[in-house]
Every structure is written in structure tokens, then in C-alpha cells.
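Technical appendix A lists one of the benchmark inputs used to test multi-chain prediction within the project. The record comprises three sequence entries:
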Amino acid sequence: MSAEFDQKIHSTLEDANLQLAIYTATGRLKEKRIETVAPGVLPDYQELRTQANAVKKHTIENLDHYLEEFQRNVEAHGGKVIFCEDATEVTDFVLSLARERAAHLIVKSKSMTTEEVDLNERLEHHHLESVESDLGEYILQLAHERPYHIVAPALHKTRYDVAKIFTERLHVPNETVPEKQTAIARSVMREKFLAADIGISGANFLVADSGAIVLVENEGNARLTTSAPKIHIAVAGIEKMIPRAQDLATFLKLLGRSATGQPLTVYTSFLSGPRRGEEIDGPDEFYVVLLDNGRTRLLPDRDKRQSLYCIRCGACLNTCPVYRKIGGHSFPWVYSGPIGAILTPQFMGVNHEPGLPFASSLCGACYEVCPVKIDIPKILLELRSDVAKSNVREGRKRMERLTFRVFAWAASHPRIYTMAARMASAFSPSSNGRWIRKVPFFMNVAPLRAWLSERDLPPAPPKSFRQLWRRR
Amino acid sequence: MVDQLFPQVGLAMADVLERLGYQVDFPEGQTCCGQPAFNSGYRAEARTVAKHFLKTFRDAEAIVVPSGSCTSMIVHHYAELFQKEPETLARVHALETRVWEFSKFLLEVAGVEDVGARMEDIVTFHDGCHALRELGVKDGPRRLLSHVRGLELREMTPAEECCGFGGTFSVKFPELSGAMARTKIDAILRTGARTVVSLDPSCLMQIQGVLSRTGSNIRTMHLAEVLASR
Amino acid sequence: MSRDRILHRVRTGLGRGAGQAIPDPPSARIRIPEVDMETRISTMRARIEALAGKTCRTATATEARDYVRAAIEGKTAVASNAPYLEECGILNLPNVRTGITSRDELRDLCATTDIGITSADYVLADTGSLVMLSSPQEARLVSLLPPMHLAVVPRHRILTGLDELFSLLPRPAEQTSCMVLITGPSRTADIEQILVRGVHGPGEITVVIVG
């Protein structure tokens, strides 16, 4: 793995305060999820997961059909669909629309897809003010940081961090009470909502038969973003598609519970176009930007394309013992946790961060909690194989490959295998049965060094099982 | 691993099985299930080792394995490895149904819960991830332990969290692996147990390794060793 | 064109041809439980109150009006143009502004008023959610901008849950540009996971069930 990855992991593990913050916050979310999907509370939970997986599978396998149906229905209700290949095209679209409408102020609601394309940075570069309205995202925007977690972006910030950020960036007196900090954000944001020319949102779901987007939230900022300004642009990955509004009876039951242990979030909006007929308020213009940005590259692989079923609930992050130690910023891309570990290599290529698929103990907890049943461990194993193949092609990690080839050869020749094992035991330090803290220098190879850096080694027993068995 | 590092586990397992009337055979040709190679992305090498395993155990009536992760490798991942080799795949499928993780063999094949064991101790049980999530092993070992005379079982909270071994993960990301182990050990300490029991030697090696490093007196034991105690 | 290139890549990746028919999707899973109205009402109230919302049940529309009059005493209020509110006589209450059809006027009013009064198209009992479809009678911002939201709903509109809603309304897009489910007061836990209410949407919500 890259030195950068190692360093980020190391510095996160060293930071005791951060460790506590991550572990506690994810622990809370994990427990709340468990409570709300318990058999006594949601008896249908496993059935719903099966249904959700089946619907997503069908949709992804026929995605072109649903994209076209979606577009037809959006247009039938007076909206427009813009297909964008990448970050540049999304930015160009927003910029040109802003120019045409003489727009200066944009409010945004939380969208990982817009993080993916660095939308705010790009818009700011062109002198458009784009303000994050979700409290956590707003705090991070002021701090110039990336989200730490898919659902709880400011998970790593304490109230004192927030006080400092607000004081420095908003020039308000130091305020460390969360309720008061929230009130500050509320009043800043209220002005923005009411003055904004354009509201940009993400979309939790795209509904093909309705030409609608679905947005779930707790604060009300997404509703305001999509109802106050005259123009609404929703940006979503093409994989967010579901076939029918009726499928929401399945997905909405899974999303809130999996994410935060809420049967439903406070607001669930189903938006299908600009205001209609005699409706009093709502935007005059409605655009849905459908983003590829590499998603189509995942489609040909029948095993790995299930990565696209993700509904971005974050349950895998909350339950992952690795994420709960290394946190979101150790990951090289905007998506972190188990889903990030499988998406990043597929979007960016396995060599972007070759260590990433290996940064997992394959415990399977993520698969167990995934509402759409993505077999994350299986995909991690396949990605490991992809990395190994790439290393062979590029002539990297030759020693490792040689070791495994020797291992495989020895393991097919039992006498050699046993002999090698006995030799290793013979050289192992004697210890009276106590576990070993140090090995002689000639045995101090990398894997042993790595093991011994954290724990003791088992002593070699006087006789192996084989030997004992023969004696019986 | 059992062969070279924890022979007492293999002997204990054989003891328990023989007492139940089974004839236990140890094919000397066996080496490894191939998991380390598979886990590290070396599928061709894993296939070589797997084929040797298939050959070694071809004629066995039942193959009892003192490890959740090895069992899982054989019954779940061998098929994945040989998708493109129909003949070998057929042999894999023929073998899969005869491979049993030790506690599952006792409960589902031998049909016993009480093996007549006795051990005075306060223990806690660590659910290894492969056994728990890939083999569905949760209640079984607890039922077996409940019949061990003199034994008190205390559950950890949180339960079901990975010990951090993960095969080559433990040496590729040692600091992280160690951090995960220490969280597990905190949970163990909170139970007040004197012994940690598991059915996976790799988990035991990880947990014991960290316990030893911290100077703790808590010991680890494989389920087979507990069940063989008299 | 990006659209063509993207669709082309999708098709190639999936091995599908342009215009190729699709297999039937798995049937949508809709399971409507049988729950009598009294249970629905008590479940709905328990859910809303668990979220720190308030509920009230009145036998008649007149009592509802009286409740609302007391609730808005000494405060400013804006009401949507919902026919049911008219029926209850709520639109005639002294400090209630209503009948606004201009977007800008309504918005400015909502931004400066204490209480927004609406009805609702449905209520979902199992989650305690108001279902509101945007229309000439129900504008979006009345339930969103004022710091308090008060909804008055006749009991026959209480449904068991999402399944029943999507069974009655399989194509919400045909009715409205905006359907919103409102489940309790606005909240966040973004700072240290500490729960704070009334972030951008109303921090107080009251649901009055009539009948």
C-alpha cells in the first residue's frame, strides 16, 4: 500500500480523541440500526433486503431502459434531464445555466455525488457562491474539509472544533453550546435559502415511472433548497434508479433504519418537476443531472456490478471494525468505509491505492448489514486478485508472489511442507512455553516483524501434531 | 496451523470424536486449505493448494475441521476458485457436503450436545467471523459449552466484533490489527472471564498474542480443548 | 452527445441492444396490514410524541378550531388554503393570514410568521408522518418556514403506513410536483451526535386529529 495510506491510518490510530469520537459516534448509529431492524420491530427486515436486492439487480441489469423511461417522465412533467460524463460536464452545465439566468448565489443540500465531482470548489473557482446548507456539511465547508462519513459528515468534530471554525470564519463570538451553534447556522442559512438563485441537491433515489427524485433528510435544508429558489438542479449517479414509486415502500423502510435507526427521516420529499399549474410555490425550472463519472465501467463485470446497488445508507461504515478505527479521512477518495473500499478501485483503477482492498479483515459484518445485500467481502477478494494480477503485469511485489508460489508448491508436496515447518520450529527461540516477544535477527523477516510489533508469537511446541499423532 | 503451533487442539478434537465412537484418521498428506494465498489475491496458487486438498481428502467420509475460516474457505470459496474448471468443480461440490466445522459436526452429525466434559472455569466465547457469518455458527458452541460441568459462560459486549486477525491483514496492517485486537480484549476484560474460548485457532493466536504482550494472565483455549477436558 | 455516449456504454456493458425489451421487474412489494382506526390513531400519536411532536384529538371541527385559536393566541399565523381548514372555520380566526396565492408574498409572510397552519392529505400511522401534496390549496413553504407547524387532519385520512400510501397513490407524480412526508420536528445530530431540534424546518409540530 502507499506510504500515504499507511501514514493516514497511523495518525488516526494515534489520535486518542479522534479514536473515541469515531468509535462512539459509529457505535451509536450501529446500535440504533440494530434496534430498528430487530425481529420484534421490523419482522419483514430480511424479506425487504431480499426484495431490495432483487429490484436493484433488475434495475442495474436494464439500466438503459430505465434511464430512458426516467427522462421521458421528467420531461413530461416540465423538467429536463442532462446526462454528464464527468465533473467537467456537470460544472459546465451549472455554470452556463447560472450565466444565462444571471445567478450568483447557490444553496446546496448534502450530496456525496457533488463531493465526488468537487462541485463547490469548481463553482467557487468561477466566482459563484455555493453554500452547503446541511449543518455538518456547512461546518466542513467552512473548515475546507471533506466529509468524514457518508451520512454524518462532521462526525470527527467536537463542539470546540465547531466553535473555533465559526469564530474564525463567521466572525461570531465563541460559542460552544451545540444548540446555539445550530441557531447560528440556521440564521445564516435562512438568508441564503431565501436569496439563492439556484438550489442544488442530490437524490437518494431516481424513480423511473414517475420522472421523480426522492430526497431524505432531517433538517429541512433539502426541502428549502428545492422549494425556495426558482431553479432546482438535482445531481445523481445513474445507478440511483429504481423502477417505480411503489418500490419506495421497500426502500424507504430500509434506508432510514440502516442509516440512523430512524423508521423514516424527518422529511422525505418526492419531487417530480417544476411547480405545476396553479401550485403556489416551488421552482420554475427543474433539472436532473445524471452522472456517469465511471459508473458505466463497473457494468460489464457481472460480479462486481452489484457495487452499484448501494443506496448510501452508511450502515457498512458504522459496523466496520476497520472504519471504526481508521475513520473516513484515511480513505483516498470521497467514499469511505467498506463501500468506499470497493468503489474506489473500480472507479480509479486498482493502482490508485493498491493497499485498499487489503485493508480489511474480511469479517463480513458489512455484508450482514447492507440493506441491498452487496457481497462486499467477495468483491474485496476479487479486487485483491486484480491487484495481484496487476502486480504481475507490472513486475511489482515479486518477492510476495514468489513466496506464495513457493508456498503453493510446498503445500502440494507434503513431505517438503512438513520439513520446512519443522525447520522453522527448530529455529524458533526456546521459551518454556511462554509466548515469544523477539526472534533472532535472521528470522526477523517483514511478516514476523509486523506481527511482533503488536503481539507475541506462539512458541513452537516440542512436537507437531503429526509427530504426536504417529506416536498414539 | 494446528499441526505446527497448536497440536493440542488436534489431539483434543480427536479425543472428543473417538469418545463419541468415531474412527479418526489423519491423512498425512494434508498441508493447508489454501486460504492464505486466496486471501492475498493469488488465486492460481490457491487453486494448486486446493487441488492437493481435494486429492488428499477425496475418499474421506467426513472431514472435521477445527477452524471456521478453513471450513469456510473449503465450502464457500473453493467453488469460486474452480468456476472455470467443471471437472474440478464437480469434485469440489462432492466434497463440500462432507466438510464440517468441529462444533457443527458434533451438533448436526453426531447429534450430541453433552460430550461429558468437565472444566472449572469462567470463560467467554469469541465468535470468529467466518464461523459466525459464513457458516451460521452462533448458538451451537454455546449449547455445547452449557453442558460442560463447572463451566460458567459470560458473554462479551459488544459481541460479534472481529478480533483483527484477517489472515495476511494482521501483518499488512499490523497497527490496525493490533488496535482491533485491543478493543476485543477490552470487551473480554469487562466479562471478568479467565479464559477465552473460540473455535478458530487464528483468532486465538491473535487474541493470545495481544494478551501475552499486555502481560495478562487470561488464557485462550480452543473449543475442542474445553470439550476434551475431564 | 453525452447522453448517447453514456447510454451506449450502459448498453455495451450490459450486453443489451437499443430499445431491447426488458424482463418483468420483481413485483413491487406492497403489504397492507389490517389495523382498526382507533389503533391507528393511538399509534400515530405515540410515534409523533416520541419524536417530541405534539398531538391532540378533538371530536368535532369546532373543537379543533378552538384548539387552534388557543394555540395561536398572542402569535402570528399563516394558513394554507386547504378546504378542510375552511371547513373547520380556522381560516376565519382573527390572527390568521390566509388566501395568498402569490409565491413571493407567501414566502415573505412564512419567513416572518410564528406558526404555519396546514391540513394534510394523509397521515401514516406507523411512523407518525404527515403526507402533504403540494397544490394550489397547500403551498410547500407554509409547513417549512415558520418555526412552528400545526396540521389539522380529519381522521379518515389516517393510513396504516407507506404500503397503503403507495397502494392508493402509485403515481404521486401525476398529482403534484412535490409530495413530502413529514415525520416529527426538524432535527440534527451533526455536532457530537447531540440532538438539536428546529434546524431549518419547524422545531415544533402539532397534529390535530378531528373525529
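Residues 174-191 of chain B form the longest helix (18 residues). Chain B has a mean pLDDT of 95. Comparable benchmark entries are summarised in Table A2.
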